[in-house]
Amino acid sequence: MVEKLKKSFITGLFVLLPLWLSIAIITWLFGVIDNLFVPLLEASLRRAVPWMPHIPGMGILTGLIIILILGLFARNVVGKRIVDAIERLIDRIPGYRQIYSTVKQLTNAFSSENKGSFKTVVLVEHPREGVYIIGFHTATVEHNGRNFAIVYFATNHLYLGDVFLFPEEKVVRLDMPADQAIRLLMSGGIVCPQRLNSYLCLEKEPPASPQA
Hints:
Blueprint: H1 2-45, H2 58-75, H3 77-90, H4 96-109, E1 120-125, E2 132-143, E3 146-157, E4 160-167, E5 171-174, H5 178-186, E6 198-200
Antiparallel strand pairs: 1-2, 1-5, 2-3, 3-4, 5-6
Helix pairs in contact: 1-2, 2-3
């Protein structure tokens, strides 16, 4: 009886824990983002409406509007020129330019407009024969007439890892979305599909599935 109660308690705990943690993380992010933009909103609106109370979520709404406006501005010709001018100015600031360029490269790697970086999940035999590791095929380079795939392997964290060059014929492309591969890596392999469908990295498209 005690053993059954113990197992039931543990089962209930593992049911409740993901729900509680996910709600706690969302609540924390909501508060951080909301508080980031609330001062900007209140500074502009309280002059016109001094009695306006604090409304939760207005900071997030303001942030979304600002990001949308910046995105629309940066996509037109004038906006691109201004952004390029700001980046050239940043490039002249010692210290900060290294931090900015590194952060920009990392964020661009996961951008939806980036067609290559961190989008292709691959399987490579490494570090010895019979042992395979999952990584991201980020680019292809040529050396002595051969094509080499640049593969990034996450180690301690997604943003920390090692970069290796493999002959492309040694790299197996996985039919796996990048977000699923990230979940696999961040979970320590727990969140993993039961079957890894693959095709050669040299192929441009995965082979068509056989029709039933």
